[in-house]
User: Fold this.
Amino acid sequence: MLKLFIKSISILFLITFINSAYAGDAEKGKKVFNKCKACHGIDEGGKNKLGPNLWNIVGAPIAAVEGYKYSKALVAYAEEAGNWNEENLDAWLKKPKDLVRKTKMIFPGLKKEADRANLIAYLKANGTN
Ligand code: HEC
Assistant:
C-alpha cells in the first residue's frame, strides 16, 4: 500500500515537472509583452493603437478586432487560417513576415522559444477563450 502511494506521488511530481518544463509561464510572459506595448494594448475593451488590441486573442478569429484596419495580407491569411491558436501564434511571433509576408506588423520576432511560450501563456491569461 505504502509502496503504491509513493509510486503515485512520484508520478504526480514527474507530470508536474514535465508540464512546467513545457508550458509557458504567464508571469514571465508579462515581461516579454513589454516589447509589444508600444503598438498593442491588452485590456478588455481597450483601444487599438498602431496595432489592434490583443485582449482574448488566443482562439479568436484572425484580423477581426473591431475598428481596426488590417493589411490586405493579414485579411487574406485569416481566410486561409481562421483562428489564432498556439501553433500559428508561435510562428507569427517568431517572425511575422515569414508567416504573412506583407503584414504591416513591423516586428523582427522573438528568437527564443521560451519567450514565445511564456508570451502565449500571458496572452491566454488575458482572455476567456
Ligand atoms: C511596431 C508595432 C508593433 C509591435 C512592436 C508589435 N506589433 Fe503586433 N501588430 C502590429 C500591427 C500594425 C498589426 C496589424 C498587422 C496587419 O494588419 O498586417 C499587428 C498584429 C498583431 C496580431 C494579429 C491580431 C489580430 O487581430 O489578428 C497579433 C496576435 C500581434 N500583432 C501580436 C503582437 C505581439 C505579441 C507583439 C510583441 C511580441 C507584437 N505584436 C508587437 C504592430 C506591432
Observations:
- The first helix runs from residue 2 to 22.
- The mean pLDDT is 91.
- The CA atoms of residues 22 and 53 lie 27 Å apart.
- The radius of gyration is 18 Å.
